[in-house]
Design brief:
Rossmann fold; three-stranded antiparallel beta sheet; 7 helices; 10 strands; binds fructose -6-phosphate
């Protein structure tokens, strides 16, 4: 793993964002796996601003996202699809025909098979962007007994519900989600992980220095050949 430490999340956004802009310019039809949550927002802002300034075009890229809540309409203001539209897609020239998302209201087994096939049909994911949960989750793969493979329906843990329920003001936060599995993430050719803030410090330490165990799902990244971790000083404090 390559570890990069920055002073703050703005610097991370500039570094990771400029990496993406260069990568997309060199590989205009690349396949990118995106994440939601607070961690990637400065990176998305950087990419959107670069588009605005004419420095990059997203019109030929294809994208997949890590996860989506169950029991929430796709266009609800708290869906992850809406999050991506607001934070990146609507601010660029991305072709929405090339945007694929897990459907949290579909049959989980059929949707998992569809997503795996769709990723395969695009030749796999070139770069998967990840955040990390306070409990070490990646996507919504919560700590558990075993590493998962393809997309599946997860029961969210209390830690995740506590962290994310602040965003829900009109409906209760869903307790289930469809998430890409650990196997799907590990098959990405390159992985970029972003973690900021002291609440992530222990999970970051367990991911990098702890044993590889499904009790810290992010620890599996130690076995991936091409991972770059972008941390601020607070998230790196226990390394
Ligand atoms: C989001 C996702 C989650 C988040 C993680 C960190 O698509 O899969 O694993 O990356 O919960 O969330 P933030 O960035 O909000 O701290």
């Amino acid at each position: 793993m390559e570890i990069k430490i920055f002073n703050n999340e703005k610097e991370i956004g500039e570094a990771a964002g400029s990496f993406y802009v260069d990568y997309i310019n060199a590989n205009p039809a690349c396949v990118l796996g995106f994440a939601t949550g607070a961690s990637p927002v400065p990176t998305y802002e950087y990419i959107a601003e670069s588009y605005k300034q004419g420095k990059v075009s997203l019109k030929n890229i294809s994208t997949f996202n890590l996860d989506e809540y169950c029991d929430l309409p796709k266009d609800h203001k708290n869906s992850y699809f809406t999050f991506m539209c607001e934070n990146l897609f609507s601010k660029t020239d991305i072709n929405m025909d090339n945007v694929d998302f897990l459907d949290g209201n579909a049959d989980p087994d059929e949707e998992s098979a569809r997503y795996a096939e769709a990723i395969k049909a695009k030749g796999g994911i070139d770069i998967q962007l990840l955040g990390i949960g306070r409990n070490g989750h990646i996507a919504f793969n919560e700590p558990g007994e075993e590493f998962t493979d393809e997309a599946w329906k997860v029961t969210l843990t209390q830690s995740t519900i506590d962290a994310n329920s602040i965003y829900f003001d009109d409906v209760p936060m869903p307790h289930y989600a469809l998430t890409m599995g650990i196997g799907s993430i590990m098959r990405s050719k390159k992985i970029i992980m972003i973690a900021t803030g002291s609440s992530k410090a222990q999970a970051v330490r367990d991911m990098i220095k702890g044993p590889v165990t499904p009790m810290c799902p992010a620890s599996i990244l130690q076995q991936h050949p091409d991972v770059t971790v972008y941390l601020d000083t607070a998230a790196a404090a226990l390394l």
